[in-house]
């Protein structure tokens, strides 16, 4: 084989490798999307875990329920939107994004939204919630925690950590690759809490450069039972 023929054969080989890798990546994405669809099709992802629908510790007694936004009691949804405003408006106002109430309301009411609610067993009032979604994120199947919000008098009693554990249980039992969330850098309490819950900076978290900086971190916890299958495309 002369040099020209050798070059041609090498480039043919490379093309073949690339097509094989593309095919594998397409198959991986389709499989990931299928897992997301299956998780979203469940009537109640918490029903498989009867030991996790009660939290009775440190003076709190709560029942946990999990519902899609369309099945949530409208008053409970309004309470969640209000609590989110109370807890988050000052932090958003300090951020480059600013606070946009209607956008937040719309986000919390989108069809894809799921809610994990903690309801006080005596008053029957909601005291904490997480808005989360089963979704694709940068090509990975994930449970994305959009919000975790507790009423002030229920904090520091282990409920937040318990609710994160419930989200992880629902994520990993449905073969999600990781649990992901965004937290403002100027929310030191939130950062300390998620660090305590063993969340780490995610590979998709934007890095500060000399051109600009970001006022949030993307954190995640990986599903240890699921090895990364991403191709090198
Ligand atoms: C952040 C928040 C969800 C934490 O929930 P919580 O129920 O108060 O936290 P927990 O009691 O479960 O704490 C779990 C662990 O984190 C630690 N922790 C919680 N807040 C902390 C803080 N500000 N600094 C240091 N550690 C903290 C606790 O000491 C505990 O540690 P342990 O497991 O060793 O006992 C809750 O305080 C809240 O709703 N804050 C307002 C809204 C918010 O900031 N949400 C998160 C950003 S999206």
TrEMBL record:
Domain N-acetyltransferase per the UniProt entry, residue ranges: 67-221
Catalytic activity: N-terminal L-seryl-[histone H2A] + acetyl-CoA = N-terminal N(alpha)-acetyl-L-seryl-[histone H2A] + CoA + H(+); N-terminal L-seryl-[histone H4] + acetyl-CoA = N-terminal N(alpha)-acetyl-L-seryl-[histone H4] + CoA + H(+)
Claim: Lipid biosynthesis is one of the keywords in the record: no
Origin superkingdom: Eukaryota
Cross-referenced CDD domains: NAT_SF
Keywords carried by this UniProt record: Acyltransferase, Cytoplasm, Lipoprotein, Myristate, Nucleus, Transferase
Localization (cell): Cytoplasm; Nucleus
Pfam families reported for this sequence: Acetyltransf_1 (PF00583)
Region annotated Disordered, chain positions: 1-21
Family: Belongs to the acetyltransferase family. NAA40 subfamily.
Protein name as catalogued: N-alpha-acetyltransferase 40
UniProt organism field: Homarus americanus (American lobster)
